[in-house]
Amino acid sequence: MKLVFKLIGGSLLIAFLGAITFSAINWVPDRSVEQLKSRWAKPASQFIEIDGMQVHLLDEGLRDDPTPIVLLHGTSSSLHTWDGWVDVLKKDHRVIRFDLPAFGLTGPTPDSNYTIEYYSQLVAGVLRKLQVDQYILAGNSLGGYIAWATALRHPDQVTQLILVDSSGYPFEAQSMPIGFRIATFPVLNTLMKYVLPRGVIEGSLKNVYGNPSLVTPELVDRYFDLTSRAGNRQALVERFRQTQPGVMAQKVPQIKQPTLILWGALDKLIPFEYGKRFHKDIAGSKLVLFDELGHVPQEEDPLATVAALKGFLAQ
């Protein structure tokens, strides 16, 4: 019996020492916005005050465009995910994008509110601050969920809707990025506030790309750095607790705006069956499938995906 206890005690000690070593190696303290601005705030970046936050925003392109295109990124991403689209769209449109609360340089909300209702309210608030009355709204993943929720809650403002591998229905992932799994797992998500293995970021990105070889060290740098923005890691945990898909799913058939649905066939997080469900539930919607792309097709192949958007807008 003493031998058994010694063996158990030895195993626990090894596990404990392993955890300490792992944490020491991967310990990443929070970084301030000022520390991150030099690399991740673009020359045209603005910081506008909304609900006690400084929201990081880019407003580019034609200033006299009466109906700007507004782009919303997904979970753990940032406004940079739309760089390729904006390079094309800003020649003919006004394009507005910003870091959603909990992510990028915007960071956490003062009251830790990350409900879908709040995100929708924030989008309307940002556009009101910019004195934009009507706009075309596009979103990827969580951003898609926020986009169609905003279209329902503010139908007089959203003129057209673009959903890119959108969340919103209760879904069953074929494969969940490891970073998302950690954020939803008790104890581990507490440790995540202090520990940030670069390999977790890289693995999560490769999981959502159709072609993992396109995940470059520079791309990993961006996601890694912005995840370490002060407060973002805890906010991610709260975001998963509060913004649950399915809350408004029964209202999807009420969407009346002309809607374009773009989907990566290799999306393992929100599989294509959910894209087909959006297409079925939104009357008159157009569905475009990209055979070789994953969950973030606008980032993986911006030229092919933005061409589909331009064709839709031309109609």
- What is the name of the CATH architecture of the largest domain? 3-Layer(aba) Sandwich
Rg, please?
Answer: 20 Å
- Per CATH, what is the topology of the largest domain? Rossmann fold
Number of domains: 2
- Report the sheet with the most strands, covering strand number, pairing sense and barrel closure: 8 strands, mixed
| Portion in strands | 5-15%
Rounded mean pLDDT is 90
Return the structural class.
alpha/beta
Proportion in helices: 40-55%
Cα distance spanning the termini: 78 Å
Biggest sheet: strand arrangement: 1-2-4-3-5-6-7-8
The shape, in one word, is: globular
Q: Count of DSSP E strands?
A: 8
Q: Would you write up a description of this structure?
A:
It contains 13 helices and eight strands. The protein is of the alpha/beta class. It has two domains: 1-30; 33-314, 3-Layer(aba) Sandwich (Rossmann fold). Helix 3 packs across helix 13 (302-314), helix 4 crosses helix 5 and helix 8 packs across helix 9. It is globular and about 50 Å long.
Give a quick precis of the structure.
This protein is an alpha/beta fold. The protein has helices at 2-26, 33-40, 83-89, 116-129, 142-153, 178-183, 188-191, 198-208, 217-227, 232-242, 272-281, 297-300, 302-314, and strands at 46-50, 53-61, 69-72, 94-98, 135-140, 158-164, 259-264, 286-290.
